């Protein structure tokens, strides 16, 4: 099977964005993370920052609800955000080869045979070090930020895709980016993409 799309799901601090960016450069294909939110915002009218933070809202439903024309029910802003992101993910995948990070892209594109679904994880110490040194999280807050972000992503995925984060059956390939390092993880993914 020849892959043209890679979805990257990841633990917070595992280097998913860096790996995705480097891999996209090596493969010469687009990388969508924050741009994904901008694309979804254009068509939905929702704020791009709101969409970017959608994964981290711990599944809380906002009190504000909108009634869509002709719909017998109301959608929360969180539900609207997920639907806008899902539509953007599908549109970008239709445009050609790309790498998509987070937001349940593996489940949204689960029907595509040309999509390689990857999960990145790392040991806690490696992740804590990364979020302090590279993401700028204060050391005294790192443990809480790591725990809260992982929990929020897990709740988001369960609520919107019915997946349990990190369960291998949701992915084609699970890699320990902490043990392998960023460079080797990128090389492995490049090889799978080019050979498969």
Tell me briefly what this model is.
This protein has helices spanning 16-27, 34-44, 48-52, 77-95, 105-108, 124-133, 139-161, 177-180, 182-195, and strands at residues 5-10, 31-32, 65-67, 74-76, 98-101, 115-121, 173-176. With 196 residues, the chain is an alpha/beta fold.
Task: Please state the average pLDDT score.
Answer: 84
Structural class: alpha/beta
Estimated share of beta-strand residues: 5-15%
Largest sheet: 5 strands, parallel
Helix content: 40-55%
Total number of β-strand segments? 7
Q: Give unreliable regions as ranges.
A: 58-68
Radius of gyration: 17 Å
Tally of separate helices: 9
Q: What general outline do the C-alpha atoms trace? A: globular
Strand order in the largest sheet:
2-5-1-6-7
Series of secondary-structure elements, N-terminal to C-terminal? EHEHHEEHEHEHHEHH
End-to-end separation in angstroms reads 5 Å
